Amino acid sequence: TDELWATEHGPLGGDEINRIQPGMNYGWPVVTFGREHDGSIISEFTSKPGMVDPLAQWTPSIAVSPVHISVSDRYPEWKDDILVGSLAREEFRRLEVKDNKVVQHELLFKGLGRIRDIKTGPDGYIYLVIEHHYASGEIIRLVPVVE
Fold first, then answer.
1. Which residues pair with 57 in a beta bridge?
2. For residue 129, how many C-alpha atoms fall within 13 Å in the half-sphere facing its CB?
3. For 69-97, what is the mean pLDDT?
4. What angle do CA 109, 143, 97 make, to 5 degrees?
5. How far is CA 49 from CA 46, 58, 97, 111, 132, in A?
6. CA atoms within 13 A on the CB side of 75
7. Looking at residues 123-138, what average pLDDT do you find?
């Protein structure tokens, strides 16, 4: 897409995905779902007029990493969905978005390793770049199951 998207690591919770728009205020540190690492409150507000709420947020933190919009015809049921990787939880998630709201949040894989990147290749397949603790990483190609 021609849109700018950003992921944000919260301190203790409050990881976010935002669709960035010119001139908008995304709130940090006035609004947040996270807490300081010592557990103290950063802000009592999670939303406030004049500030853009995140499209999605995770508390506790998943250490959200890449965000990727699924545009390939190889995954018709995922068309225009947001694919999200996680470092801390080692998860791969799909967010279905309608009218700028997440209407479905699906955990697709867990425990593959730390997902460092998500890309659609020239062949239309989605590829995950996986980092393993104390071992070589790998690139995984997602092949849809045909029923």
1. 16
2. 10
3. 94
4. 60
5. 11, 21, 22, 38, 42
6. 23
7. 92
